[in-house]
Design brief:
By secondary structure, this protein is mainly β. Helix content is 7%, strand content 49%. A hairpin with a 2-residue loop joins strand 9 and strand 10. The longest helix is centred in the N-terminal third of the chain and has 17 residues.
Amino acid sequence: MKKFLVVVLILFAAATYAQKDSTAPAPKTATHVQKDSTQKAPKKDWSKVLLGNRSADHLMIQFAYDNWSGKPDTINTVGFSRSFNTYFMFDFPFNTDPRLSVGAGLGVSWSNIFFDKQEVLVASASNATLAFKDEAGGDHFKKYKLVTTYLDVPLELRFAFDPEHMNKSWKLALGAKVGLLLTAYTKGKNLENNAGQPINNFTENEQSNKYFNGTRLAGTFRVSYGVFGFFAQYGITPIVKSGAGPNLYPYSIGLVISGL
């Protein structure tokens, strides 16, 4: 009996020793820190952006449809009146934010306004005001236009969405043009009668700045992607002098090519 009790005690002790301690702490497992989805990316410091790849293109070319607002019914413009402008521009980025820059330059613009069976008497010595002579009932030029040429100083406040890659960036510009009138002249080609039959294939030119403002101011806006874009321009000052004719305000809508 004693031997039996000894064996039982030995077996009980062995079983107790072999049993896993249920109170022991569970082994540590790898934990993952959950990223805060509300955490914002750090704000870009535009003052440290390098502009080594910024376009060095200084040329700006514009081609547009031209017309006048405030035009009375007695002025018969016709067809695709148009202008061509070319400027050499300088760009000055802001140090604190090169997305913003100021553009300034110098260039020349030409505006061609076409008329239907009408003459513009720019060189008249007797008229106190600029006359738009109606020739619908008689001989007239098949093609007739008024051409004005200006020396312009364009100024722009520019914004580029990606100033490091201007050839792939959307760009906006708001500005003005200050212009000095160089010449104003008319050009008529191919004289014909009331029935449209040719009379003479000669060209007539008349030139005078007498009735036109010597300076002009126009507001400008353009939007571009890369080198191509659209622009609009509206005259703040009228093209004809005060008291010398109707208040005609030139405007243009067209295409622009510029790397900046």
